[in-house]
Amino acid sequence: MLHMQNLRKVFRTALVETHALRDLTLDVKAGEFVAVTGPSGSGKTTFLNIAGLLEEHTDGVYELDGIDVKKLDDDARSRLRNEKIGFIFQSFNLIADLDLYDNVDVPLRYRGFPKAERKRRIEQALSRVGLGSRLHHYPNELSGGQQQRVAIARALAGEPKLLLADEPTGNLDTVMARGVLELLEEINDQGTTIVMVTHDLELARRARRHVHIVDGQVVDLAEHDFAPVRAVERVRAVA
Amino acid sequence: MEIRPILSSMKRNPVAAVLIAAQIALTLAILANVLFIVTERIRTMAIASGVDEPNVFVLGNQNIGNTRDPVIANEEDIKAILAIPGVLAASPGFSFPLVRDGWQTAVTLTPGERIEGPERAAALYFADERLLDSLGAKVIEGRYFTPGEITPFKQGDQPNPPVVLINKGLAERLFPGESAIGKMINITGNQGEPSQRVIGVTEHIATPWPRSRNPDRVVFVPHASVGLGGFIVRTEPGERDRVMKVVEETLFKVNPNRIVSNIRAFEEIRSSAFQSDLAMAVLLAVIGISLLAVTAFGIVGQASFWVTQRTKQIGTRRALGARRKDVLRYFQTENALIALIGITIGSALAIGVNGWLVQNFGFDQLPLSWLPIGGALVLILGQLAVLGPALRASRIAPAIATRSA
Amino acid sequence: MFTYYLKLALLALKRTPVLSTLMVLAIALGLATAMTSFTVLYRLSNNPIPHKSDVLYAVQLDNWDPQSPYDRERGLPPDQLTHGDTRRLMADAKGLRQAGMYQSSVVVVPADPQVRPRNASVRVTGGDLFAMFDAPFLHGGGWSKEDEQREARVAVITRELAERVFKKTDVVGQRIRFDDEDFSITGVLDTWELRPRFYDVTNNTLDDPEDVFLPFTVATAREMDINGNINCWQPPSAPGYRGLMDSECIMTQYWVELPDAAAVSAYQAYLDAYVAEQRKAGRFGRPDNHRITPVMGWLAVNNVVPDDTRIFVGVGVAFLIVCLLNAAGLLLSKFLRKSGEIGLRRALGARRSAIFAQHLTESGLIGALGAVCGLLLTLGGLALVRSLMPNFDDVARLDVGLFGMLLVTAVAGAVAAGAYPAWRACRIAPASQLKTQ
Prior knowledge:
The structure holds three protein chains of three kinds. By secondary structure, chain A is of the alpha/beta class. Helices cover 38% and strands 26% of the residues of chain A.
């Protein structure tokens, strides 16, 4: 599903060159649930932006679902984003002026589905996250956890192959966070690949696979039963 | 206040600054010329007629049928108007100051002189023994016509009297620095020997055409224009409106075979004479005010946006010790810088636009002193417009810096 | 997608009501100013007789002072003819149709002595005028050449005068009293829109055609006054009306219809010959400067459109530009303020073109709203012009075609003003702003 090889990302300004990613290599298979962790400034966000086609990488290979994205122009990247990827952000990123229906509608509009199809998908997606009865509420009428469920519904409505989540529970309390996580696991069980960036090791441990990024490189690949505390210690040892 | 950080911030967002500067430049260019035109028109409209305007009115009169001798009919009509209580004087005629109808002639001093061109032109007023009194004007040198000098003037006649009066403006042009009394002039337009003797000079009286190039050159000829046009009437103060109401019936009592038309107070003559000037002044003033409003609101809108956009940055500055007035001054300096750029370009543009108007429409040169005045106006406008958003910025709490949203 | 963009645009307007209102008002004000001035200009520059304007020519002869030109600055010949030249040109009748003419007036004396008489404006002219200018007859027609030769008291009147005097329009053959003579009515003209009234630029060109038309020969015999400019470079050599008629004073307009190029050159040759012959009689002491000018050229040469109108248009257009610049600046602020949402839309798969189109739609919507408000303001502006300039009453009226132009200008202007801001909006990176919203 996700194939990254020797991926590099360099930010250049007149004075400095910052290597946000250096020779990052990672493979994510279809159906996996991968947690990506790393300290602040490690390149997690850059990794997620590149994985989500929000930014272009400088060097190396990135194939998404078998497509080499380096060769794509902006329109093709937009289409790929729209069709294959669903995003979940820490701060939900719902549009405050649109009701739930219209929020979930946003990516479907850009996909160009006919009206009936959009309606079906929106209602289905919102029902799936348990908000099927609140189609015409506005985001600010909902709790944080509910807002994040809307964001998940928006991500799912396009039936993406890959779900990219950026600290999906970062702005939520424990109870709500658990609910969101259970929802993600359920989605993963139904076959959607999930890559989740988080600094919450508790959360990372629940993922089937745990990837650690430090200083722009994947330094540690661990299976799901890895002990989180040790992971941190080993990272320190390497650094 | 340091200017460098403002400049570098502008450099990173040049388009917004350019749009405001362009708007200010155009505003100044338009405003300077519009204000100039408006003041010129107001000055034109304020031209003195020399008439006792609040107490004077004119009316049109046309006798029907050739049954009455026009000279006698005129005498009877004037007598009847003078008999109306409150009337001070009345004279026949069709051409008076500002009425835009009349007789224009060339005035020469020596035989064979060129006669064409506005420099030679003067308006002719046909004067009976009371005309100056009917206008409410005075002789300032020499004397007025005696009744014996007045002769009737009918359609097709050519004015060629032995004596004339001229107004002050014409006297000063023809005989600068000396007395005009007793001088000979030629008003017949025949390039011959001057045959009109100047016996008096009146105070300022305007021509019928206030917008012509020389609106202050008038010759009075001692001809009572009978059966042409109508009458001019002067009343005692406060009596005019009442007289205007009864004058038509008074004349019909003398002789019903006539058409009385256009009974107009002098103010009406003045306003129709300057109708297009007033229209232009009002329309341009409306545009000028709208222009200022649009530009001011544009600046307010833009500044509000930048304040919102930089909330965090401003909070950080405040956290780092910037005082409220530092923040205020930042936005005001920024606006002043942009305004100054706009004013510089706008001044050049204003001169260009005026040059074009001078070339194509015979406008006067825009006095250069107008540009700093206009510039200051625009600068103050900008400062006032930016004040609201800047004050809002200055009230941003330093704590914003530590919050993420 | 357009409906989606429209829905988003409406939403955006609702979200920033003050800013949006300011933009709509700015565009409306700019449009109203430009459109008010354009309407006046357009109406004043109207071709009064479009189907014939290129075959009708004003005739000018240069009988002016041998010592000095009539128009030193532009070198133009006098704008009117002498009464004598007019009579002779009409008698020669070398064009397809021709008419010398001037404005005069009569007193219309009603049959009922209780009704007070009133003035009527008169066009003194030749019988060719009606066919030449396509005068719309409601009843009857013009007078004949014989009428002119025997100086018959005949008249053509307008339906307005007929209705006023007779309370009906079909009055052909009836008699009407002008001053102290009875005239026989040969024809009644229907309402005649001729704006500007091109045939006499010495009188107000915004007036309607005159109430009464009388034969030139009759007017000469009756010594009818001339309402208009009489301009002399030397005083008449004889006194009275006859003296003026035989003087070098200019006082009449002269029009000729020449259907093709051959007719034009033949007429020019005729004028050359006429001037040469008059020279033998001691007239036309100036170098040759006679000419014929078609309708639109004549209106241009005589500045029928006042300079003030052109300046007004210039100021109006400049103001519109300021308003559009203003809108561009505000749109830029407005769009960039939504960077977060735009970045999100990009992340969710919106192409650049979709973002661009969405924001252009928003600009266009503001333009369309500006057009609607602008229309109201234009109507107000035209009402203001009419109240300030009563003789512009028919000029300062909104034209349907111009209203279409208003709409197109508004939307196009707003879209143009929104193009750069929309382009900036679509360049917003999808990744930006997602973290810190």
